[in-house]
Amino acid sequence: MSETSSAIPFVATGARVGIRPFTYDDGEEFTALARQSTQHHHPWLFPPLTAEAYTAYAQRLIEHPSRAGFLVCERPSGRIAGFITVNNIVLGAFLCGAIGYGAFAHAAGRGLMREGLGLLIGHAFGPLGLHRLEANIQPGNAASLGLVRSAGFRLEGFSPDFLYIDGAWRDHERWAITREMTR
Questions:
Q1: Tens of pLDDT along 58-75?
Q2: Which of 14, 78, 121, 155 has the fewest Cβ atoms nearer than 10 Å?
Q3: Residue boundaries of the structural domains of the chain
Q4: Mean pLDDT of the chain
Q5: Shortest CA distance to 102 belongs to which of 80, 121, 76?
Q6: Contact (CB, 8 A) for 31 and 48
Q7: Which class does domain 3-182 fall in?
Q8: Distance (Å, rounded) from C-alpha 16 to C-alpha 85?
Q9: Lowest-confidence region among 2-6, 91-95, 111-115, 170-174
């Protein structure tokens, strides 16, 4: 972890993790963890593995107004445990975003992403001003389904051939949570 990225303040903190925005300086740590986690992520997720790919990925999250990216970092060390992105943010009458996320292998199964997702939900329904978050998950991804279930998301439907992942169009379940569901 670079000194610059460790100085970025958390936007929300819990007992074991905090969430903070992505920075360009996180690339080295992020890509090293992503390379160590390729077996853990396959076939569900393909985070950037090179500096160039990370820069392009981070740029979309940092500079595009319809996206926001957060790193889930262990406290007090600041080591990145995972990441959560909010994509397709729509304001106006919708106030919704679609989340994506991933834990790195060293953090898997430790409850860190559950805590981080709870922090993200609070931040999305607070400072980000959203009313609804959606998650689209492949039916066979038991860990991801368990994460959203434990965070209070409800199953809303099924989308055949929804996203092109790992060389094929994949079916997804649609899950969502609204601000009212967290009260």
A1: 999 999 999 999 999 999
A2: 155
A3: 3-182
A4: 96
A5: 80
A6: yes
A7: alpha beta
A8: 20
A9: 2-6
